[in-house]
Design brief:
245 residues, six-stranded mixed beta sheet, three-stranded antiparallel beta sheet
Length: 245
């Protein structure tokens, strides 16, 4: 993985503002999420990480166990209201955008093409521009959900943006170093929760979780010029499409 300056700086920002790495909700994986409840609560768009959230690391197909949950998510929000934002596929290190095209084709949703890695301000701006291009009026950042497996990238991105942050904790199949980094981040989140005063509760957070076998015990509610690739095509920032948002 290339050096991520924005992610490194987030470590120092979190030392000053511990709440920056605290998610609104922690679940094992997306199967625990009640997407219909999110929709009823007024959320209009979902930003998703790729590796260890939807696909195995460095793969471009959906983890089979997530197929039903993925279909539920696309049913509730429609594919154009979902946006994959990865620090691998779609970045400047993705030669020719081939990985972004493959992921978009296999998962059936857009993949953001961005020059800066999460949780940079440029990536935040690119996300906002995407949703502004398909929705009128553009959704407020507070009407977006960000789902990912890394506190220092996905959760920081969501909290800076003002979106609802969901941290998924299941490690499907990562390298040893990646697993160690994820464990360290989860420990940092626990410390930040202990050090920080309780943030304002998000109305209806408990409704956003559904019971899925033993996963219930692992749910934690914390009260608190770009292009994108879709189905093999790089789409520029364009006028509102008039589709459901």
């Amino acid at each position: 993985m290339p050096f991520n300056l924005a992610g490194t700086l987030a470590v120092f920002h979190a030392l000053v503002r511990p709440r920056l790495i605290i998610p609104n909700l922690t679940v094992q994986d997306i199967r625990s999420l009640n997407f219909a409840a999110f929709r009823r609560a007024g959320y209009k768009g979902v930003v998703l990480d790729k590796d260890n959230c939807l696909t195995l690391p460095h793969q471009d197909t959906l983890i089979p166990e997530l197929d039903t949950a993925w279909r539920e998510l696309k049913h509730e929000f429609d594919a154009h209201n979902l946006l994959i934002v990865s620090n691998s596929a779609g970045t400047r290190y993705d030669a020719g955008g081939l990985a972004a095209e493959s992921v978009s084709h296999n998962l059936g949703v857009p993949v953001l093409r961005h020059s800066s890695m999460k949780p940079s301000r440029r990536t935040m701006t690119a996300i906002q521009r995407y949703f502004a291009s398909i929705c009128s009026p553009a959704p407020d950042p507070g009407q977006l959900i960000v789902i990912g497996d890394r506190a220092l990238t996905d959760v920081v991105l969501a909290n800076r943006l003002g979106a609802y942050s969901v941290l998924v904790s299941r490690d499907w199949k990562s390298a040893v170093m990646s697993r160690a980094a994820g464990a360290s981040e989860r420990a940092a989140v626990s410390l930040a929760q202990w050090l920080s005063p309780a943030p304002q509760a998000v109305s209806g957070s408990s409704d956003f979780v559904k019971e899925v076998g033993k996963q219930k015990d692992e749910v934690k509610v914390n009260h608190s010029g770009s292009t994108w690739t879709w189905a093999g095509r790089a789409l520029g920032i364009g006028p509102n499409s008039g589709k459901r948002c």
